[in-house]
Write a structure and sequence with these properties.
Blueprint (H helix, E strand, L loop, with lengths): L1 E8 L3 H10 L10 E3 L2 E5 L12 E5 L9 H5 L6 E3 L2 E4 L4 H13 L6 E5 L12 E6 L11 E6 L2 E6 L10 H8 L7 E4 L8 H6 L3 E6 L2 H13 L6 E5 L2 H4 L7 E6 L9 H7 E14 L5 H11 L5 E14 L2 E11 L1
Parallel strand pairs: 6-7, 11-12, 11-14, 12-13, 14-15
Antiparallel strand pairs: 1-3, 1-4, 2-3, 5-6, 7-8, 9-10, 15-17, 16-17
Length: 335
């Protein structure tokens, strides 16, 4: 079907598209066409264009628009996606079932829909889930709660019913791991399935990941292999306070992402730290003084052991609850 299009040289295509989009004139229902060195940009109202644009009529294909859950429900439902699993958080079982069926009937690449059934609980930091719906045509025999999450070029296999994982911390993990050097020795004291460990190892560091949860440790080993870094990763099951003596004075970098109780593990972190070590210490504190308690706790643990403490970064990760912030202190310990 012929549609009005703005015809421009290829090198001017993106600049022109942005200008048309700013004027709300881009025809989103039809595709942009590239023909040799010329681009055809479909527009909605050619009469509104200034004489600076060359308008022609030509055949352009319509977008093959995906059917969304909102198309089927008549409203935009709230859900998250982790890999091929959709996650709801609602106490209304009838509404949850409606949304689950719509998600599976839509064109989203989802094989299961689950609903949060409890808060994170216990030392292993896991929660209960209700499986609302699964794709009957899916031949996969994995648990409905198991999926593969992709983040900054890495893949993480995990089972939400067996391990703790938050995709919302992806940007923070990337911030930290981008600062890792190839010759470093790093310890993740609460490693989970490896979202800090794997990218640090991919940058050439030698990494020890410790976790109390045996399922998380097994997924960590699988994810190290999946991402091609198993030769630089050691996964240890256990309480890091018991493990620390085995790596005393070893670490150039330590990740302490257990924000509700990281201060209970600072003595272990000091044991692990080498003569010059950066610690990424996560905390949750009131907005009136989000960094002070963590900094004081680090100094109380490190200075008696002969370390100078230098705070490199005071960083707000996200809002955690009303008037509470999830923060990170990047701190250098130097003997």
């Amino acid at each position: 079907m012929e549609r009005p299009c703005v015809r421009v040289p290829r090198e001017a295509g993106e600049r022109t598209r942005r200008a048309l989009a700013d004027a709300d004139l881009v025809d989103e229902d039809h595709e942009i066409v590239v023909d040799d060195d010329v681009i055809y940009l479909p527009v909605t109202d050619p009469e509104s264009l200034s004489g600076d644009y060359e308008v022609v009529y030509r055949d352009v294909p319509a977008h093959d628009r995906q059917r969304t859950p909102a198309d089927l429900l008549g409203f935009d439902p709230s859900y998250e996606r982790l890999g091929d699993v959709a996650i709801l958080d609602t106490d209304d079982s009838e509404r949850a079932d409606r949304i689950a069926q719509a998600i599976l009937e839509s064109d989203l690449p989802v094989r299961a829909v689950i609903d949060r059934a409890s808060k994170v609980k216990g030392d292993l930091r896991v929660r209960d889930w209700t499986v609302l719906a699964t794709d009957p045509d899916d031949g996969d025999d994995r648990p409905a709660t198991e999926t593969v999450h992709r983040e900054y070029g890495f893949e993480y296999l995990l089972d939400l019913a067996a391990v703790y994982f938050s995709p919302r911390l992806a940007t923070e993990r990337h911030r930290v791991t981008e600062s890792v050097a190839a010759d470093e020795r790093a310890v993740d004291m609460f490693a989970g399935v490896g979202p800090f460990v794997v990218p640090m190892a991919a940058r050439g560091a030698t990494v020890v990941g410790v976790d109390l949860n045996p399922a998380a440790v097994e997924y960590l080993r699988q994810n190290a292999r999946r991402n091609g870094v198993a030769d630089r990763v050691t996964a240890v099951e256990g309480d890091v306070r018991d493990v620390a003596a085995d790596y005393a004075g070893w670490a150039d970098r330590i990740v302490m992402n257990l924000p509700h109780s990281a201060d209970d593990f600072l003595d272990a972190a000091v044991t692990l730290a080498g003569d010059d070590c950066v610690i990424h210490y996560y905390d949750i504190q009131h907005e009136d003084d989000p960094f002070g308690p963590g900094e004081a706790a680090i100094r109380d643990a490190a200075e008696p052991a002969g370390y100078d403490v230098e705070v490199l970064t005071r960083h707000v990760v996200r809002s955690y609850a009303p008037h509470e912030l999830n923060v990170c202190l990047d701190v250098r310990l130097s003997r």
